[in-house]
Amino acid sequence: MVSIIILFSWPWRNKEENYSDDEIVEGLKNDNPAIFEFLDRKFRHKVITFVGNKGSINSKMDGDDLYNICLYEVIIQIKRGSYNPNYKFAGFFYRVYSRKWYRLLRKRNINIEVTEQFPDEDSSNQYEFLEELGIKAKYLELVKEYLYKIREECTELLNLFYYQNLNATQVASLLGKTATTIRQNKRRCLQKIKDAIQADSRWHQL
Prior knowledge:
This protein has 206 residues and is mostly helical. It is built from nine helices and no strands.
């Protein structure tokens, strides 16, 4: 049985206090109220903003609902041992809430075709991704790791291209930008991942 406590205000907490990813994961395993309050403060508004920029008519209601659902799923995954410590927690949480939101868009008949594939699941698109990066398949796990270590905007953009099977026009429509801007951002994000991977000591060990 997985329990969850969602707390909105703990007045004795220092609002500037921060937690490492390890502390967050351990806190969620143990249902630590301070961690729930910290995540609420750190991510709830971010989720509300995300859905507001991605087709929500009522972003506050949708965002609140999505945040609560996703926090519950994150706790379940962590307690089941599904969390990969090589990923930043923020990237892991983003993966959960973006996937659920794109599913919801599809159910609402938004004209975007979204798949269930994500970077840590089997997909032929992984190899297209590697090809565009100019990186061999043996580095796939390293690529997955860095996909969630770069800034969230790049994680989202590359996920939409390679794991949601969208083209530049569809991504531009979803993100509210021009296709030209999306293509330019895609090139920059690919280069960021490639530079990060090649600077990693494991690059020369594999």
